[in-house]
Amino acid sequence: SCDASQLCNCSSMGLEFIPAGLTAKMTVLNLTHNRIKHIQSQDLQQAVNLKTLLLQSNEISSIDEDSFQSLERLELLDLSNNSLAHLSPVWFGHLFSLQHLHLQGNSYRDLGQSSPFSRLRNLSSLHLGNPQFSVIRQGNFEGIEFLHKLWIDGSNLSQYEQGSLKSIKQINHMIINLRNSNIFSEIVRDLVHSVSWLEVAEIKLPVEKKSLVQNSTRPFRIQKLTFKEALFTDQSISRTIVSLKEITSLKELQGINCVLEGKGIWDTKEIAMSGQSFVETITIIKVVIQNFHLFFDLEGMESQINKLKRLTIASSNVFMVPCNLARHFLSLLYLDFHDNLLVNKRLDETICERSWPSLQTLNLSQNSLKSLELTAKYISRLPKLNNLDISLNNFVEIPDVCKWPKHLKYLNLSSTRIPKVTSCIPQTLEVLDVSGNNLKEFGLQLPSLKELYLTRNQLKTLPGAAPIPNLVSLSVRRNKLNSFSKEQFESFRRMELLDASDNNFICSCEFLSFVHHEARLAQVLVGWPDKYVCDSPLAVRGAQVGAVHLSLMECHRSLVVSLICVLVFLVILLLVAVGYKYHVVWYLRMTWAWLQAKRKPKRAPPKDVCYDAFVSYSENDSEWVENTMVRELEQACPPFRLCLHKRDFVPGKWIVDNIIDSIEKSRKTLFVLSEHFVQSEWCKYELDFSHFRLFDENNDAAILILLEPIQSKAIPKRFCKLRKIMNTKTYLEWPAGEQQQQVFWENLKGALKS
């Protein structure tokens, strides 16, 4: 399968041959970890634009001579870890663009009689050799003039023809696994003019008097020599020191994972007589001295170290440097003793008065120092020191006052278990690292500080900016920081980098508003936006801070609630106003009356009608009603039965029920209309129910008597049916003259009988 960039991955598919159908579009073909045994001439014929061909970890034992003929654009070919028993120059004859060739891990014993690489003019890196590889002949590297990296697995190399590697004019970095010490010397002689960095692994250095640069002319090119997994003795190391002095270009020596069988009893006289070393940098990492507690103090080596500028001895059980020896490191600028066994008592000897006079950088991390006060006191003897790393020691406590070098600018106190920071920390610092100490606050006055590292602590807020006004870079990664405000951020006027990633942020409205509107934040925050994630609210947990937007209700709850209350009040006010204007109260009363009426039995059948008419009148009109109308109607022949509230209402019964019952038990309802009637509340109730009855029963049970002239508009507009009756039907008006009054009574009696 191929992706958009035409990288085709056929790895680990159990293929026994190169698949058919390769095209010119392919640029990378990965056939690793299959079971391919043979490459045929036509297999890769169409893949003319291939730049990378990966065939490692197959079972390839044979390749047709013209198999790679069409791959003129190929830049990387990996045939490592196969079963090739020989290498043919014809295979590589058309690979004009090849830059990287990997042939290690096969079964060939030599490279042939000539050079397999003679036409690879652009080759930059070459990796060859295997456990069976035993012979390098002259001419094997003909045609190669420059290599960036040459790696030879020659752990069992037994024969090297002198001058075999001389044909390569320049090698930046050469790595060779070599156990034969005699061959080592011959290879070094061939490489002193071409290689810049030589790395030798698995060798047991010889004890020989023969010069490494015998018959070689200056200038030499080799600048760096590394020994990995090498074995030294006291005798061989003495000879090696003497021999390496002859390589005047050599500036750096490394020993990594080596073993020293001895006690440091070196031939210091011979070493001293051989002259001054040109090496400026020595790095020793994980060197095992089996009897390190019996190791001598290297007395007599003082003259060999005064030009040394950089020294690293790490993970090698160093517990002390004799004071006399330390005083002779006159030019040393950089000293790294990390991951050793230094303790405070021995540090007094290691850093004695007038020792390490030029030292600028000291690394004592991951040792066994316990007292920060004593450590600072001894280190204060280094007048030029400005960089100090004492991290990963177990100080536990920190005093209030300490004595430090006057010009100290960088201090690393990370992971030292100090519970707080005090004025023990010098004010001259420009860089301070107190990460991994469970600090809960930081308030030191450090006016010169530019970089502050507070990673893996317990800080809940950013430190104050006032005590550290010149801060440029701040790291508070992996703390308990929940948020920080615009004011806190802007208080660091010179801030260029802020690493607040991997904290559990509370994505409050204030914090999110600041994040979304602070344009400079994205430029300053390290790891933004991927490593800034909300921890709460729960709805946005796990989301990136920059992508979260909370709702208006979540951000302005009190304001929204206040607005809702105001709106509810205004709505109520509006409803009251509308109700007043459109008589909603009256309609509610009507509804109530209607419900009351509906809860009662239907209107009484005719046999239950007790009255001819219910008289609704104002108390102010009672004299006319009781003395005139009642007498006239109840004494008529036949007499009319009238229902009057004063006389006929049931005592103790709710007045509304009395009104409803009386109207329902009367065939007609007489309304004695006057100005007093319109103003009477109880008359209005009677009008209300009568008005409802007009709608509900659709009859003409109401008779209007105008006791005195009134305008129809005096009747409220909500009594639309009654107003319509007054406008469309004849109503009875009480006349002033007696003759007209007689006609009035006749008409009224006729209306009651209808």
From TrEMBL:
Subcellular location: Membrane
Any one GO molecular-function label of the UniProt entry: triacyl lipopeptide binding
Gene3D superfamilies per the UniProt record, alphabetical: Ribonuclease Inhibitor (3.80.10.10), Toll/interleukin-1 receptor homology (TIR) domain (3.40.50.10140)
Gene behind this protein: Tlr21
Pfam families, A to Z: LRR_8, TIR
Keywords for this protein: Disulfide bond, Glycoprotein, Immunity, Inflammatory response, Innate immunity, Leucine-rich repeat, Membrane, NAD, Receptor, Repeat, Signal, Transmembrane, Transmembrane helix
Organism for this UniProt entry: Nesospiza acunhae
Stored InterPro entries: Cys-rich_flank_reg_C, EF_Hand_1_Ca_BS, Leu-rich_rpt, Leu-rich_rpt_typical-subtyp, LRR_dom_sf, TIR_dom, Toll-like_receptor, Toll_tir_struct_dom_sf
Name by which UniProt lists this protein: TLR21 protein
Disulfide bond positions: 2-8, 323-352, 402-424
Domain TIR: 609-752
Gene Ontology biological process terms from the UniProt entry: inflammatory response; innate immune response; toll-like receptor signaling pathway
Keyword Transmembrane applies: yes
High-level lineage: Eukaryota, Metazoa, Chordata, Craniata, Vertebrata
